[in-house]
Amino acid sequence: MSLEMLIIGAGPAGISMGVEAVASGIESEKVLILEKAPEHSYMIRKFYPDQKLVTANYKGQAAVCNGVMCIPDYSKSETLSYLDQAIEKHKIKVNYQETVWKLEQLKDGSFFVSSDKGEYQTKTCIIAIGMMGKPNKPDYKIPGDLKGKVHFDITSQKIENSKVLVVGGGDSASEYVQYLSQEGNSVDLSYRKDSFGRMNEININSLMALNERGETELVLNSNVCELKSNGEMVEVIFKEEIKSRLYEHVVYALGGSTPKNFLKLLKIEFTGEDDQPVVKDGYETSIPGLFLVGDLSAGKRGGSIISAFNSSHEAMKKICTDYLTCKI
Ligand SMILES: Cc1cc2nc3c(=O)[nH]c(=O)nc-3n(C[C@H](O)[C@H](O)[C@H](O)COP(=O)(O)OP(=O)(O)OC[C@H]3O[C@@H](n4cnc5c(N)ncnc54)[C@H](O)[C@@H]3O)c2cc1C
Questions:
Q1: 257 pLDDT band (50/70/90 cuts)?
Q2: Measured from the CB, is residue 43 less than 6 Å from ligand 1?
Q3: Taking a C-beta distance cutoff of 8 angstroms, is the pair 285, 186 a contact?
Q4: Region 241-248 average pLDDT
Q5: Mean pLDDT of 4-20
Q6: Which of 222, 234, 235, 284 gives a 20 to 30 Å CA spacing to 95?
Q7: Cα of 172 to ligand 1 centre, how many Å?
Q8: Residue of the nearest CA to atom 10 in ligand 1?
Q9: 328, part of any domain
Q10: What is the CATH number for 298?
């Protein structure tokens, strides 16, 4: 199939990229998104607690939208329904459960993309796979017999009426604690620092309120260094002189990392200093016509939904100027 634009990943960045393309005059049949999950915005579905407030100024980023798409503060379901409607309204075709294996640039500058389900030729290619493809894991080994008791998200397995330790200190750690407490769990939070500098105000306040009501214990200045099986429980051992503790479940909220292997496989250049993919004007990579949008291009600070929308708008400007016949 010959395309003007192939987008990998149907999260806020990939969807807004498709919307920007159609809004700037590219025929929707010439735009295709390949999403490896069974539904779009899989990271949002998987990692956001259901009752989460999706803030427009996430992590203090300006809630200013430059392109076609924009959100105010929304609930999780409103956010997903806004993204659903964007796909529908702009007739964006998304192939679900399709994973890209190979991407090569041809002599004429176009790309040949092979997936587990098909082969495509496209004039431009956009990578919008986010950061959460592989959640960060601790550097110590998790014993195999703890399978089902140690988690890197809270939706793969239902955790209720249990004694749980959440490990981490960012917004997702607080949101996991709030969600798990609501599910009837007794939840403690282990964080390596003495305060929560990386959390937004709503999440700090919610966490502190739980702590004041005695519903969660904050184990600050604690570094988990080992997990052991102890009967039916997980024994958590700390580097500091803190007595080891027993939990039924341990949940890590250590954030995600750039799916570097995927990008390196595509031979995208990385900076030597902080090992981030090089993105130029309009979010173009070192390979002409290949763009990185959304969290992938947001750097170490991380992105937001609006910054993902805005990155697509900037990429589209560059694409209309240098590659496709379109107008923005
Ligand atoms: C717990 C948590 C809370 C957050 N709260 C907020 C908030 O309140 N407000 C806000 O603005 N932002 C929030 N964010 C950040 C926001 O969710 C991200 O900035 C945004 O989702 C980034 O969009 P994206 O499209 O770049 O990536 P993602 O949302 O990660 O989407 C990537 C998509 O690509 C797919 N994919 C991955 N790999 C492949 C592959 N190889 N092939 C095909 N498809 C692939 C994934 O399945 C996914 O659907 C939060 C993040 C987290 C983790």
A1: very low
A2: yes
A3: no
A4: 96
A5: 98
A6: 284
A7: 13
A8: 304
A9: no
A10: 3.50.50.60
